[in-house]
Specification:
The chain is an all-alpha fold. The protein has helices at residues 2-26, 32-47, 51-68, 75-78, 87-126, 129-146. α2 packs across α3 and α3 (51-68) runs antiparallel to α5 (87-126). The radius of gyration is 24 Å and the shape is flat.
Length: 147
């Protein structure tokens, strides 16, 4: 009896795993225009925007879409350097590479912060005070979920 239950559970787990893989392969990411339109429509519905606000928000989203997205990291840059003759040279090269990465990440963060501030300034000019406060509240709840 125990063996039959174990076999049945194993078969069920195998089928569930296969189904999950199948679903993942069928999933296709929407194109950029659809993502921009979807974000605009979602915000318009959520914050009760009128048509004028919606059209201004669409233009703002088009302007900042590429700037606000997190690009994929270049996996080639993340690889360790090839082993060298001298252990000391290898350690020094790694230190320099880490410093360069740190500076690059700080520059990216600064640029993202500037883009976010400009986007929020644009939103503030489009949305009413109540709509903007609702947006900020939603933004904070998203931050809490990520932590």
């Amino acid at each position: 009896m125990k063996k039959a239950i174990i076999i049945a559970l194993s078969a069920l787990a195998l089928c569930a795993g296969a189904n999950a893989q199948e679903h993942r392969q069928d999933h296709k990411r929407p194109d950029q225009a659809a993502m921009i339109q979807g974000r605009t429509d979602h915000m318009a519905e959520k914050y009760g925007l009128d048509e004028t606000q919606k059209s201004k928000l669409l233009e703002l989203n088009k302007e900042f879409f590429g700037k606000m997205r997190h690009g994929k990291m270049d996996r080639g840059k993340m690889r360790r350097p090839e082993l060298s003759e001298s252990q000391k040279q290898e350690i020094e090269a790694r230190k320099q590479e880490m410093e360069a990465r740190k500076k690059e990440m700080e520059a990216r963060k600064k640029e993202m912060d500037e883009n976010r501030a400009a986007y929020e300034a644009g939103l503030k000019s489009i949305l009413t005070e109540e709509q903007f406060q609702a947006y900020k509240k939603d933004l904070e709840s998203h931050k809490d979920r990520r932590r």
